Amino acid sequence: MKVGIVGCGLIGQKRADSIGGNTLVAVADTDITKAYYLAMKHTNVKVFSDYKELLKEDIDIVIVATTNNALATITLDAINAGKHVLIEKPGATHYTQFDPLISAAKKNNVKVKVGYNLRYHIAINEAYHIADIGKIGEIMFIRAHYGHGGRLGYEKEWRADPSISGGGELIDQGSHLIDLSRCFLGDIHLRSSSVKTYFWDMPVEDNAFMILENTDGKIAFLSASCTEWKNTFQFEIYGKFGKLRIDGLGGSYGTEKLTLYEMSPEMGIPEITTWEYHKPDTSFEREFMSFVQAIKYDLDVWSDLEESQKTLKIIDEIYKNNQVK
Fold it and tell me: Computed from CA positions of residues 161, 165, 166, 171, in that sequence, does the dihedral angle turn out positive or negative?
C-alpha cells in the first residue's frame, strides 16, 4: 500500500521505519527540514510543508504523527479525502473530537486506527493470550505503573503546554495504561483519581493516579509519572489461579519480560516461568501490519475510534474531578 506521513518528528520517523513492505510516497511537516530529513532516508518520497497538498496524492494510508492538538483536524481532512488513517494516540485532546471522525469514517467507508502500540508488544500479546485461555483463572484486578524521568527543560516542551497536549502525564503515558486495562477488563469506569504536579514547574500534572472498575467489579489500579527518574513499565494481571507480570518495554525501559506465576492446588510458592524478549521493539511494525490486514480483508480494527474515545472520556472525567497543583 502507498503511505503518507504527516508529522516528521521522532514518532513519525519510527512510523516510517515500520511500514514493512509498503511504500512511503509522501511526507509533510510544517518544519520542512524535518520532512526532508525523513524523506532522504527513503526513495522517491515527495515532501510538503502543507499536509493538505499531501492528501491530494495517490495514497492509501495516512499516518498522522503530529502534536496532540492537530491530530483530530488532520485526521478528519484525511478521512474526507478518502484515505485510511492511523492516528497517533491519544487521537485528540478531548473525546468530543472523535464524533466527527466516527461519522466521516462511516460516510467515506474508510478505516481509522488509533496508534496504541503497547498493545502490540510481544510480552503484552502473550499475556493477553495466556489470560484469554484461562491459564490464570478469572481476572480479579490489574496493577500497573508507567513512568519516565523527564529531562532538563522538560517543563518547556510541548507536552507541558495544555493548549497543545490536552493535559500532562495522564493523557500521555496514562492513556496507554487505561487502553491496556480495557483490553483485559473490557469497558471500565472511573472510581477515583488524583492528578498532581509535584516537581516540574508546568501547568499540567506530572503524576496521575487512578482506580478504574468494570461492571463485574474488577479493578485496575494505575499510576503514570514523569518523576520516575528511571524509565519504568510494569503491568500485572492478577487471576484466581495465578498472575502475569510484564516488566520493561526494551531500550531505556529495560529488557521486556513476561513472568507467569501459577498457583498449585495446595497454594504455597507458585511455579514461575519467565520469558525475556531481547530483540528490538517491533510493536510499531506489528501494529501497522495489523491495520493493513484490516483494510485488505475488511476486518474490525483493534483500537478503533470508538474504543479510543472511551479512553479519552475517562481522562476527561479525571481532569474534571481534579485540579492540577
Answer: negative
